[in-house]
Amino acid sequence: MNNDTRRRQARELTLQVLFQEAYIKNLDTKKSLDYFKGEFEAHSDVIEFAEMLITGIAKHLKEIDSIVQDYSQNWKIKRMASVDLIILRIAIFDLVYLKNEVPYAATINEALE
Protein backbone atom coordinates (compact mmCIF):
# COMPACT_ATOMS: atom_id res chain seq x y z
CA MET A 1 0.00 0.00 0.00
CA ASN A 2 1.52 3.32 -1.01
CA ASN A 3 1.61 6.54 1.00
CA ASP A 4 -1.20 8.19 -1.02
CA THR A 5 -3.54 5.27 -0.29
CA ARG A 6 -2.70 5.42 3.41
CA ARG A 7 -3.38 9.14 3.57
CA ARG A 8 -6.66 8.68 1.75
CA GLN A 9 -7.68 6.03 4.29
CA ALA A 10 -6.61 8.35 7.11
CA ARG A 11 -8.81 11.13 5.71
CA GLU A 12 -11.74 8.71 5.48
CA LEU A 13 -11.15 7.64 9.08
CA THR A 14 -10.92 11.30 10.12
CA LEU A 15 -14.24 11.98 8.39
CA GLN A 16 -15.90 9.10 10.23
CA VAL A 17 -14.59 10.17 13.63
CA LEU A 18 -15.46 13.85 13.13
CA PHE A 19 -18.93 12.92 11.83
CA GLN A 20 -19.55 10.89 14.99
CA GLU A 21 -18.30 13.81 17.04
CA ALA A 22 -20.80 16.13 15.31
CA TYR A 23 -23.78 14.03 16.42
CA ILE A 24 -22.80 12.57 19.76
CA LYS A 25 -22.44 15.11 22.52
CA ASN A 26 -19.43 14.78 24.80
CA LEU A 27 -17.92 12.09 22.60
CA ASP A 28 -14.40 11.19 23.56
CA THR A 29 -12.55 11.46 20.26
CA LYS A 30 -9.86 9.06 21.46
CA LYS A 31 -12.49 6.41 22.25
CA SER A 32 -14.11 6.98 18.88
CA LEU A 33 -10.79 6.54 17.10
CA ASP A 34 -10.08 3.44 19.19
CA TYR A 35 -13.45 2.01 18.13
CA PHE A 36 -12.63 2.48 14.46
CA LYS A 37 -9.15 1.03 15.00
CA GLY A 38 -10.78 -2.05 16.49
CA GLU A 39 -13.39 -2.43 13.79
CA PHE A 40 -11.24 -1.80 10.73
CA GLU A 41 -7.77 -3.07 10.08
CA ALA A 42 -5.55 -0.14 9.29
CA HIS A 43 -1.82 0.33 8.98
CA SER A 44 -0.24 2.25 11.85
CA ASP A 45 0.61 5.10 9.44
CA VAL A 46 -3.11 5.50 8.69
CA ILE A 47 -3.95 5.79 12.38
CA GLU A 48 -1.11 8.21 13.08
CA PHE A 49 -2.05 10.51 10.19
CA ALA A 50 -5.74 10.39 11.17
CA GLU A 51 -4.87 11.28 14.77
CA MET A 52 -2.75 14.19 13.54
CA LEU A 53 -5.60 15.43 11.32
CA ILE A 54 -8.18 15.12 14.09
CA THR A 55 -6.08 16.91 16.70
CA GLY A 56 -4.91 19.54 14.22
CA ILE A 57 -8.43 20.32 13.06
CA ALA A 58 -9.61 20.56 16.68
CA LYS A 59 -6.71 22.84 17.56
CA HIS A 60 -7.34 25.19 14.61
CA LEU A 61 -11.13 24.81 14.35
CA LYS A 62 -11.92 28.50 14.84
CA GLU A 63 -9.45 29.57 12.17
CA ILE A 64 -10.60 26.85 9.76
CA ASP A 65 -14.28 27.69 10.26
CA SER A 66 -13.47 31.36 9.75
CA ILE A 67 -11.95 30.50 6.36
CA VAL A 68 -14.99 28.40 5.45
CA GLN A 69 -17.33 31.22 6.45
CA ASP A 70 -15.30 33.86 4.59
CA TYR A 71 -15.58 31.96 1.31
CA SER A 72 -19.12 30.64 1.70
CA GLN A 73 -21.37 33.15 0.06
CA ASN A 74 -24.94 33.13 1.37
CA TRP A 75 -24.25 30.08 3.55
CA LYS A 76 -23.79 29.97 7.28
CA ILE A 77 -21.81 27.10 8.76
CA LYS A 78 -24.86 26.02 10.76
CA ARG A 79 -26.77 25.44 7.49
CA MET A 80 -24.08 23.30 5.86
CA ALA A 81 -24.41 19.55 5.70
CA SER A 82 -22.17 17.96 8.32
CA VAL A 83 -20.31 15.77 5.85
CA ASP A 84 -19.65 18.71 3.52
CA LEU A 85 -18.38 20.85 6.38
CA ILE A 86 -16.09 18.11 7.68
CA ILE A 87 -14.65 17.53 4.20
CA LEU A 88 -14.00 21.27 3.90
CA ARG A 89 -12.31 21.30 7.32
CA ILE A 90 -10.03 18.42 6.36
CA ALA A 91 -9.14 20.04 3.03
CA ILE A 92 -8.48 23.45 4.56
CA PHE A 93 -6.31 21.89 7.26
CA ASP A 94 -4.30 20.16 4.51
CA LEU A 95 -4.00 23.35 2.44
CA VAL A 96 -3.16 25.74 5.26
CA TYR A 97 -1.31 23.68 7.85
CA LEU A 98 0.24 20.87 5.77
CA LYS A 99 1.05 22.94 2.71
CA ASN A 100 4.53 21.49 2.27
CA GLU A 101 3.43 17.88 2.78
CA VAL A 102 0.40 17.55 0.52
CA PRO A 103 0.22 18.95 -3.03
CA TYR A 104 -2.71 21.34 -3.47
CA ALA A 105 -4.06 19.34 -6.42
CA ALA A 106 -4.09 16.15 -4.32
CA THR A 107 -5.97 17.87 -1.49
CA ILE A 108 -8.59 19.27 -3.85
CA ASN A 109 -8.97 15.94 -5.64
CA GLU A 110 -9.43 14.09 -2.33
CA ALA A 111 -12.07 16.56 -1.16
CA LEU A 112 -14.01 16.31 -4.42
CA GLU A 113 -13.93 12.53 -4.48
Q: Summarize the main sheet.
A: none
The helix tally amounts to: 6
Q: Uncertain regions: pLDDT < 50 for 5+ in a row?
A: none
Class derived from helix and strand content: mainly alpha
Please indicate the percent range of residues in DSSP E strands (runs of 2 or more).
Answer: under 5%
Cα(first) to Cα(last) distance is 19 Å
Instruction: Tell me the overall shape.
Output: globular
Q: Give the C-alpha Rg.
A: 14 Å
**Total number of beta strands:** 0
Order of helices and strands: HHHHHH
The portion of residues assigned to helices is: over 70%
Mean pLDDT: 87
Note down, in words, how this protein is organized:
- With 113 residues, this protein is mostly helical.
- 74% of the residues lie in helices and 0% in strands.
- It is built from six helices and no strands.
- Helix 1 packs across helix 2, helix 1 (3-23) packs across helix 5 (82-97) and helix 5 (82-97) packs antiparallel against helix 6 (104-112).
- It is globular.
- The relative contact order is 0.14.
- The model has no long low-confidence stretch (mean pLDDT 87).
Core attributes:
113 residues, mainly alpha
